[in-house]
């Protein structure tokens, strides 16, 4: 059945409407029932000159790498420098300052850029910001989940779609809300942003750190809900790494498993291993498939043709992805803004 579905996806890709995000059908579909495109490491200057350009790109997911600098108590944005900033975020917090100010700023400035860009484009598409916490939270240095929430809330206010929004007044866990498909439509999320948190490569390779971002933020959500303060949480922690079955059962204490409804892993691992990705779709969990270009037949990770992107989107939508990501920053907003039906 999967082979038939994959062939159908490839054959139908040429007919895909790349302008689909502006259509009524695309706007009305629920976030959990759509497949969109994201850009890996969108903060890098070789991808976009300014982070505002990344926001202009049409991509529905933009990734930021964040280090907690315990010495200066700053949230650094960089690929490999834990004590400095190396990125396209500007020291700009109003629309007229974008595309012109000094770059290499910290996470607070990246959020200021988002807020300023939102002022200029209040009816923008829903955008997921995937934050890789490269070396994890540092709660002992006041760079923990509480401080992350406070920073995002202070900079972005009510444009953030939060865990409490998914819960509403009807559900006591994110799992229960997701399985009831309580997600809003893309139209309802006009002008909204979502934050996804994943553990980082430095954190995962540190033998002295066994309490990673995902578990720490899962505990944070559980405890906030128990204290009646879940509205303070600004992000959704993701289960990182493609796996067969329910990966939450082997990774987390039963008390926090219901607080994970976002999953993030390598596209080829999901698809080539024949994992049951319909499991995520039928439960209305968000499934982010990374390195979409690497799925067979492999295409360019930087400069595929428009038809190849359309085919890959169609293929992985049939494999139940919610978001596919690659380094396709050079593609047009029409291409990166494409939306497909999931499943």
From TrEMBL:
Keyword Signal recorded: yes
E.C. code: 3.1.4.-
Pfam families, per the entry: PI-PLC-C1 (PF16670)
Region forming the signal peptide: 1-26
Any one GO molecular-function label of the UniProt entry: hydrolase activity
Keywords linked to the UniProt accession: Hydrolase, Signal
Enzyme class: hydrolase
Top-level division of the source organism's lineage: Bacteria
Gene3D superfamilies: Phosphatidylinositol (PI) phosphodiesterase
Transmembrane segments: none
Name of this chain's protein: Phosphatidylinositol-specific phospholipase C domain-containing protein
Organism encoding this protein: Streptomyces lutosisoli
């Amino acid at each position: 059945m999967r082979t038939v579905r994959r062939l159908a996806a490839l054959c139908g890709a040429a007919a895909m409407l790349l302008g689909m995000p502006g259509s009524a059908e695309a706007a009305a579909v629920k976030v959990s029932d759509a497949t969109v495109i994201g850009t890996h490491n969108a903060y890098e200057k070789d991808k976009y000159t300014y982070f505002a350009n990344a926001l202009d790109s049409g991509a529905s997911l933009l990734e930021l790498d964040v280090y907690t600098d315990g010495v200066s108590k700053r949230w650094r944005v960089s690929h490999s420098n834990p004590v400095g900033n190396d990125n396209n975020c500007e020291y700009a917090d109003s629309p007229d300052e974008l595309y012109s100010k000094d770059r290499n700023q910290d996470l607070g400035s990246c959020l200021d850029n988002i807020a300023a860009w939102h002022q200029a484009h209040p009816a923008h598409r829903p955008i997921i910001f995937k934050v890789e916490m490269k070396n994890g939270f540092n709660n002992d240095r006041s760079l923990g989940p509480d401080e992350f929430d406070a920073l995002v809330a202070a900079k972005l206010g009510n444009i953030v779609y939060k865990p409490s929004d998914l819960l509403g007044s009807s559900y006591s866990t994110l799992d229960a809300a997701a399985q009831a498909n309580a997600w809003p439509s893309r139209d309802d999320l006009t002008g909204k942003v979502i934050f996804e948190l994943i553990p980082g490569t430095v954190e995962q390779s540190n033998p002295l750190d066994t309490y990673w971002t995902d578990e720490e933020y899962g505990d944070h959500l559980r405890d906030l809900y128990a204290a009646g303060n879940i509205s303070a949480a600004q992000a959704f922690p993701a289960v990182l790494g493609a796996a067969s079955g329910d990966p939450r059962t082997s990774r987390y204490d039963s008390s926090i498993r219901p607080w994970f409804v976002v999953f993030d892993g390598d596209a080829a691992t999901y698809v080539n291993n024949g994992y049951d990705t319909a499991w995520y779709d039928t439960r209305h969990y968000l499934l982010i498939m990374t390195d979409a270009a690497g799925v067979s037949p492999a295409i360019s990770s930087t400069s595929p043709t428009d038809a190849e992107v359309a085919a890959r989107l169609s293929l992985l939508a049939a494999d139940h992805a919610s978001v596919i990501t690659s380094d396709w920053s050079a593609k047009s907003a029409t291409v990166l803004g494409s939306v497909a039906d999931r499943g």
